[in-house]
């Protein structure tokens, strides 16, 4: 089954304690992204990657890091989480027409993060 | 960060009615997308538009890519209770994976 998986689905942590949210896709997609969703603000892109070892900042990259060492994985790293990073996070992936897969973004189920 | 203006913010309609929502941007986009999000789930793609002026349908849903490339609309005909959810538009510029989302339209359908 084609899917994007995220772990953990729920996380409560304290300010300053480094954490990583993993994202994995099984569709051989080139593009992967991270978004955060906050009430009244919709979804905002944090980082995106157009291929292995290629990452770019989205609209709200401050306080986050990403890496793309393998095509299937795109972890989101919060080196020193703060309360304003409490949010619902989504990972997404998409392929290219040449790959024969759906061109547009598949979203993961979301990770709800609370930083106290 | 940049956001799209999406309206209306919310809609309360009766089952069977038609629905229309739209998005406008100050920037030109090469792709317009419409998503639906149910509670506790990630957004699911409804319609993708790639050409200015393009009109595309998906069942009872119809979306158009504005001729100026700065707007798009989504229509839902003969609404049913399972149409309830939040609808988002999103725009993307050429040769990038940077996607800008609208703030969403919350749809409630009453029997």
Give a quick summary of the entry.
The complex is a heterodimer of chains A (116) and B (111). With 116 residues, chain A is mainly beta.
Could you name the key traits of this structure?
heterodimer, A: 116 residues, mainly beta, 4-stranded antiparallel beta sheet, 49% strand, B: 111 residues
**Could you tell me how far the N terminus lies from the C terminus of chain B, measured between alpha carbons in angstroms?**
38 Å
> Percent range for helical residues of chain A?
under 10%
Principal-axis shape of chain A equals globular
Largest sheet of chain B: 6 strands, mixed
Radius of gyration of chain A: 14 Å
Q: Pick out the low-confidence regions of chain B.
A: none
Mean pLDDT of chain B: 92
How would you portray this structure in words?
The complex is a heterodimer of chains A (116) and B (111). Helix content of chain A is 0%, strand content 49%. Chain A is mainly beta and 116 residues long. With 111 residues, chain B is mainly β. In chain B, the strands form two sheets. In chain B, strands 2, 4, 5, 9, 10 and 11 form a six-stranded mixed sheet that branches. In chain B, strands 1-3-8-7-6 form a five-stranded antiparallel sheet, with no helix packed on it. Chain B contains no helices and eleven strands. In chain B, strand 6 (55-58) and strand 7 form a beta hairpin. Chain A binds chain B through residues 4, 31, 33, 35, 40-45, 48-50, 56, 58-60, 90, 92, 94, 102-110, and chain B through 1-3, 6, 33, 40-45, 48, 88, 90, 96-104.
């Amino acid at each position: 089954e084609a899917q994007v998986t995220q772990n953990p689905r729920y996380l409560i942590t304290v300010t300053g304690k480094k954490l990583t949210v993993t994202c994995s896709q099984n569709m051989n997609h080139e593009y992967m992204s991270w978004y955060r969703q906050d009430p009244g603000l919709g979804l905002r892109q944090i980082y995106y990657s157009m291929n292995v070892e290629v990452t770019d900042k989205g609209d709200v990259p401050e306080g986050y890091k990403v890496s793309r060492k393998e095509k299937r994985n795109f972890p989101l790293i919060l080196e020193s989480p703060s309360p304003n990073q409490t949010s619902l996070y989504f990972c997404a992936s998409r392929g290219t027409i040449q790959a024969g897969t759906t061109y547009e973004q598949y979203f993961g189920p979301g990770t709800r993060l609370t930083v106290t | 960060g940049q956001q799209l203006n999406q309206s209306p913010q919310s809609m309360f309609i009766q089952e069977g009615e038609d629905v229309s929502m739209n998005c406008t941007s100050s920037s030109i986009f090469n792709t317009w997308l419409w998503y639906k999000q149910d509670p506790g789930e990630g957004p699911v793609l409804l319609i993708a538009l790639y050409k200015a002026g393009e009109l595309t349908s998906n069942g009872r849903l119809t979306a158009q890519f504005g001729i100026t490339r700065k707007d798009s609309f989504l229509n839902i005909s003969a609404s049913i209770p399972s149409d309830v959810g939040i609808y988002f538009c999103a725009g993307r510029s050429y040769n990038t994976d940077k996607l800008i989302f609208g703030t969403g339209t919350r749809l409630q359908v009453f029997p």
